[in-house]
């Protein structure tokens, strides 16, 4: 299957288009698992991921795909995603904890989705969303963001282009 560069955003567009045209789906994509901070690190994400995989299997899908948002990447917003995703621990697993969960569950890293989620807005929008001000144009790190936000004060515009990692889970 050809997975899109636009990951998360494109999966949503494809699903909408398929539904509007009455097409039967032939693939399943996971989009998000979000846990309350106090629930993290206790194995709940693996339980939810296994349940999603089991549901995909029950529905008869051969694969489940996920545009995975690496949970520790925000600590290194200026590190290129290609470099980040290649880093491994001593046991050969990805350095990123969420990618490790996927790999331990049987997932396989397929490739980077460089424009998985695109969020444009005015400077006022971004001031509000990020709870911070943007004093200059350029690439500005925002807490929690995987990559810097591209800011143009001259055009009253900022855009966040988040990369994700495509992971394939086979149901066999």
**Main beta sheet, described?**
6 strands, mixed
% residues in beta strands:
25-35%
Order of helices and strands: HEHEHHEHEEE
CATH topology of the domain at 7-116 and 164-170: Aminopeptidase
Which structural category fits the helices and strands? alpha+beta
**CATH-defined superfamily of the domain at 7-116 and 164-170:** Gcn5-related N-acetyltransferase (GNAT)
Radius of gyration: 17 Å
Mean pLDDT: 93
Figure out the total of helices.
Answer: 5
Shape: globular
- Alpha carbon gap, first and last residue: 16 Å
CATH class of the domain at 7-116 and 164-170: Alpha Beta
Count of extended strands? 6
Helix content: 25-40%
Uncertain stretches of 5 or more adjacent residues? none
Based on the structure given, which CATH architecture of the domain at 7-116 and 164-170 is correct? Answer: 3-Layer(aba) Sandwich
Would you give an account of this structure?
- The chain is an alpha+beta fold.
- The chain has a domain at 7-116 and 164-170: Gcn5-related N-acetyltransferase (GNAT) (Aminopeptidase, 3-Layer(aba) Sandwich).
- The chain has helices spanning 7-21, 44-58, 81-86, 97-104, 123-130, and strands spanning 28-29, 63-68, 107-121, 138-140, 149-152, 157-170.
- Strands 1, 2, 3, 4, 5 and 6 form a 6-stranded mixed β-sheet that branches.
- Helix 2 links the parallel strand 1 and strand 2.
- It is globular.
- It starts with 6 loop residues before the first helix and ends with a strand.
- The model has no long low-confidence stretch (mean pLDDT 93).
């Amino acid at each position: 299957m050809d997975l899109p560069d636009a990951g998360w955003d494109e999966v949503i567009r494809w699903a909408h288009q398929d539904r509007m045209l009455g097409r039967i789906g032939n693939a399943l994509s996971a989009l998000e698992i979000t846990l309350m901070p106090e629930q993290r690190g206790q194995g709940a994400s693996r339980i939810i991921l296994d349940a999603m995989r089991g549901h995909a299997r029950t529905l008869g899908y051969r694969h489940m795909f996920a545009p995975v948002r690496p949970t520790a990447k925000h600590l290194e917003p200026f590190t290129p995603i290609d470099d980040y995703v290649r880093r491994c621990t001593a046991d050969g697993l990805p350095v990123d904890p969420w990618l490790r969960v996927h790999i331990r569950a049987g997932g396989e890293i397929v490739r980077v989705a460089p424009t998985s989620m695109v969020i444009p807005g005015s400077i006022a929008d971004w001031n509000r969303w990020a709870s911070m001000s943007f004093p200059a144009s350029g690439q500005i790190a925002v807490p929690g963001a995987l990559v810097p936000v591209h800011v143009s004060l001259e055009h009253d515009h900022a855009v966040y282009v988040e990369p994700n990692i495509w992971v394939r889970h086979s149901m066999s």
